[in-house]
Amino acid sequence: MARVSRDSIKYILLIAVGMIMIYPFVWMCLASFKSNDEIFGSLNLLPSKISFAPFAKGWEGSGQYTYTNFFSNSFWLVIPTTLFTVLSSVVVSYAFARLKFHFKNAAFMLMIATLMLPNAVVIIPRYMIFNNLHWVDSYLPFIVPALLACNSFFIFMMVQFFRGLPKELDESAYIDGCNSFEILVKILAPLCKPAIISAFLFQFIWTWNDFFNSLIYINSVSKYTVTLGLRMSLDNESGVTPWNQVMAMSFMTIVPCVLLFFFAQKYFVEGIATTGLKG
Length: 279
Hints:
One of its GO terms (biological process) is transmembrane transport. By secondary structure, the protein is mostly helical. The protein has a single domain (about 65-275), classed as MetI-like fold (Orthogonal Bundle), CATH 1.10.3720. The protein has helices at about 1-30, 35-40, 55-60, 65-100, 105-115, 120-130, 140-145, 150-165, 170-175, 180-190, 195-210, 210-215, 225-235, 245-275.
């Protein structure tokens, strides 16, 4: 009986914390259907009248560029960056976890040390490098580093997963005539699917929601992502910000991330739960 009471209290606390965390999201969604006057003039959570006008007007964006352009730009930026990050991280982490080469430990320690560097420290030299390469106002500052495995977090995460796989798998594959690349592609990569999907989800959401780096490297409005498009929606010449339209477009902006997470949450939870465990 006492155990049932303790479990009931735990569930009640979890539900309460969950409600507190999800309330801002619910409020934003419902505010998308309200008028500006109702958002600031009423405490009711539910709109008095459901209107899809904020979505239609908000999608028109500002000036000559609509959210069709912003979403298209975001996908052109996010998808290559995410795919290249995952592929390069898998290859590099496989080398650290399984292969033997000179200065391996020193290189791994140097890679781990880069995790300690805050973004504010490297943003200026990084910008100077990209500016000298004439990459500013393009998506290359995002795509090229992803292709070269510059994200140490995912390398470290994948290394822990590879180390949890039995080395007997590699030895058996070597006996069957597989080389290192075939072992990675045919044997280890399928077993690392939860970790790979977790890395994909993390990088997709982080890049999709990234505002600071997009603001630094992208100057042309025609190349703006959804985060920059939302910020531009706040710069209204009339002086009155259409918050219902901003809420509507904010809701549309997070839909891809939410859908992607729900479709892949099984592998995401499994990848987080098993990363670093010895098997």
